[in-house]
């Protein structure tokens, strides 16, 4: 049986998973491809490092030239980052090598050039693992939703932050402890700020927009807010009002323009996205013909991600090359009123608050803000926390509330109104 020579750039969490998967599924893969997959080189930073997967020491190298010169048919790029990765991938494509990558940052920052280069050299550039880990969403969008018009795609695209938010709520664990656990489990990026500050979800949303709309916004035009400021207080108060906070990525085509955002968003407890727990991801698409679709599965971790990488690898070995549609960018966003319910959640917190609920309500009423619901947590002598849902809230209101009443204020969008009783309630104990 002939052999497909595969090179790896990176042998960390995902690279290790790819090696394990190819070994475990070799028979099945060979039967499907009529060829054996053989890993011939793996680029790493440190060849002496203890690894989760054992490989022949002679396979490991710290020199990219060893991979380039080893006559590989396909390279799996799972080292991450943009530099020097972009230069390596470029050189491989120019040599006629197919590339499978899980690197969303690379794609979001240099994808347009790589797609164009791969087209020019007639090689596959496959990246199923770059969005939503093990969920085969890109293949579905590319192959099975081409006739539908899609105006909006939204989802939970980062496993680390979803794991953090779930564990903070369910196990009442502090943010820092859960983040550490996400790193131990291999969910987090090498620099976890990419996860918690919303960058990782933003890169994935950019890629999704390219597939769904045939264009995206420049990264700098995508609204982004991370989860690092969220506390158990936020989570508890949102829940009392009937919501769960999720880091939600949303892309909408509206009036010929695009709007993309990644923000912690209040999702009604009964909404399917509110039920996506731990490192699971979800992508929701509304097709003009098929209606509402929800895809869910593990969005991070060794084997779910390796599954997407190896499926890509096997797929491209059985498919003739077809050019990839060019990636385009539209320079500016159109403001969208339809991405949220028009309600916002305002979270107020302070140790020395100089205010009563009536004063807050009066202030907001005078400012033309319609408060729909309000909840308060206050043990005398400790921190005062207020959560309110209102229509017409703006950042400036939050700032004034903070300044005038000694409360720190933050605003978050609300996806849809939850079982809203329209009443101001829960002012007990203040
Ligand atoms: N972890 C996950 O759940 C998912 C990750 N991804 C993406 O997959 C990619 C890999 O992630 P992951 O496996 O978690 O990352 P790891 O940090 O676990 O692994 C990175 C690997 O790349 C090697 N490497 C990094 N930089 C260099 C360099 N400059 N030269 C040579 N080797 C280098 C490292 O070598 P050494 O081992 O010697 O340090 C390591 O083996 C990233 O793009 C990530 O965003 C995508 C989906 C899910
Ligand atoms: N750090 C990422 C890994 C997968 O893309 C995440 O947590 O989702």
Automatic annotation (TrEMBL):
GO terms for molecular function: homoserine dehydrogenase activity; NADP binding. It comes from the Bacteria. Signal peptide: none annotated. Keywords: Amino-acid biosynthesis, Methionine biosynthesis, NADP, Oxidoreductase, Sodium, Threonine biosynthesis. Its EC number is 1.1.1.3. Belongs to the homoserine dehydrogenase family. One of its GO terms (biological process) is threonine biosynthetic process. It catalyses: L-homoserine + NADP(+) = L-aspartate 4-semialdehyde + NADPH + H(+). This is Homoserine dehydrogenase. Residues 136-313 form the Homoserine dehydrogenase catalytic domain. Residues 10-128 form the Aspartate/homoserine dehydrogenase NAD-binding domain. It is an enzyme of class 1 (oxidoreductase). Pathway: Amino-acid biosynthesis; L-methionine biosynthesis via de novo pathway; L-homoserine from L-aspartate: step 3/3; Amino-acid biosynthesis; L-threonine biosynthesis; L-threonine from L-aspartate: step 3/5. InterPro entries: Asp/hSer_DH_NAD-bd, HDH_cat, HDH_CS, NAD(P)-bd_dom_sf. It comes from Brevibacillus thermoruber.
